[in-house]
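so my prof wants the structure for this chain in the tokens format not the other one, which i didnt know existed until like an hour ago. anyway here's the sequence
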Amino acid sequence: MIHTFSGETISFDIIYKNRTTMGIYIDLYGNVEVQVPKGTSEEFVFQLLEEKWTLIQQRIKEMKDRTAGHKERVYDQGGSFLYLGNAISILISQDTDIKKDKVVLEGNKLHIYVKDHDEERIKQALKRFYYQQCKAFVERRIQFYQSNFKVKPRSIRISDNKSNWGTCDSMRQLTFNWKLAMAPLEVIDYVVVHEMCHMVHLNHDRSFWRLVGKILPDYEQRENWLALSSWKMIV
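here's what i got, hopefully its the right format
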């Protein structure tokens, strides 16, 4: 859907949800998503966009500027990817005898073993590595923070959600973005605690943020790292 205001046009998606407020979300590449309560008219959506028009345009430009020139990755010797907040160089070994492509953290390098020196194979091997690492980190950190909660997650899964770092539904099913393995451990902790707090307070009311702040008093700094650095977290 598109909307034109003050001589400028914005393309956006409308997502209807069981919620009481309207929210505007802009991803790493400047794509706009408007989440609204079911039954909300398009006129109200347009009004919300116009009220926030200047901020939206600034945010779109900011995100596009950040990602400009960073979408092309080097899947060869000398390339590097984030791991726990640090840029780690990759080392590639071709081995036609291995059963499955894999990535192993060896010292300060990500050693990638592939049957063929092919960019897509390397990319997929890296994704599998980050999925596995994210699952391990998240499960350990949930266990670490569990003493702060009387309820437990019913399930924990890792996904390729492009709009959220984590989610918690009404069944206490927690889902986390695999790219979190690229963030520092304290940032992973923030997302873990954030979603665990949703097991108690499903929305973002004052009680929710009080609980987050009680467990992680510096959560805003951790949240800020994601806002400033998430554009680097790509494979």
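also thought this was worth mentioning. The chain has a mean pLDDT of 90.
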